[in-house]
Amino acid sequence: MEQAAIELKxxxxxxxxxxxxxxxxxxxxxxxxxxxxxxxxxxxxxxxMMLKIVxxxxxxxxxxxxxxxxxxxxxVRRQIGFVSEKSSSEENNLTAEEAAEFRAEWYPEWDQTYFxxxxxxxxxPRNIKLKMMSKGERRKYEIAAxxxxxxxxxxxxxxxxGLDPFAWKLMIDELRQFMESGEATILLSTHIVDEIxxxxxxxxxxxxxxLHGVAEKDSLMxxxxxxxxxxxxxxxxxxxxxxxxxxxxxGVVRMITTECMRTEQILHDSGISVLKTRSLELDEILSLWLxxxxxxxxxxGKGD
Length: 304
Ligand SMILES: Nc1ncnc2c1ncn2[C@@H]1O[C@H](COP(=O)(O)OP(=O)(O)OP(=O)(O)O)[C@@H](O)[C@H]1O
Hints:
The chain is α/β, with parallel strands linked by helices. Helices cover about 30% and strands about 30% of the residues. The strands form three sheets. It has a six-stranded mixed beta sheet with strand order 6-7-8-3-9-10, with helices on both faces. Strands 2-1-4-5 form a four-stranded antiparallel beta sheet, covered by helices on one side. The termini are close together. GO terms for molecular function: ATP binding; ATP hydrolysis activity. It holds the Pfam family ABC_tran.
């Protein structure tokens, strides 16, 4: 991975019963990193530590290559956008326009034209207090307000929660456009696998507070496949990354591999026919990965 927007080294936080960490993780600049994991796996805590809303018990975090033992300096904090899983009550009594005025004072790069354009596209209601908006309407305001200062780093904690499918599609399109500058980095925590599929360059998988692994999404999609091959189940012994084998019918064996490219090459070189292949869905890959089947070259618990 290239230079990091944020880097965590040995970061740990005890949350009531659960230990989050130790986590070693780099968010490479210029990419979308999808953060995924079961409920309570520590996604929000990790994001909160990146904003110093929660302070780690151990370890170090750096922002754009710098460490800040106390607060994140304002000029740095202003380069970081955040959509929280839960709406902040501070803006409850403001309209979208009024809240934007406050935000514009805080963020020197605030782009009011872009903000207005996003409110229009998302059909955010005007002149009503944010607390009177529906969950989805408010979420759309929050996404627009997070994008308007064109932050260098955008931390999104379940941003699509409450969005209708049309607004969801718009959000995906806007985030893609936002990334076109090549300067920005997004960390996107989500339970929606399709969001990862459409947006993420890398997938970070958390499990019980630990980093289960980091992988390039395209590499997962290209390599985790189901194959039907002429022959018997014994074949699998000579092939890389085989995690399931089943003799389907006489002379046809079905396998799942995490290293399809190498597997196909070896089969081809051995003159063995691949009868059919199926790319695994990302949710299938993630659940196999969670069960302990690791992407090629990854050791358990190693994320970086
Ligand atoms: N304020 C808090 N005080 C104590 N424990 C907390 C607090 N917030 C979260 N936790 C605990 O920390 C663990 C991780 O929670 P966190 O909200 O980071 O998970 P998550 O992966 O974001 O979950 P979800 O997908 O449900 O949003 C959970 O076991 C949770 O109970």
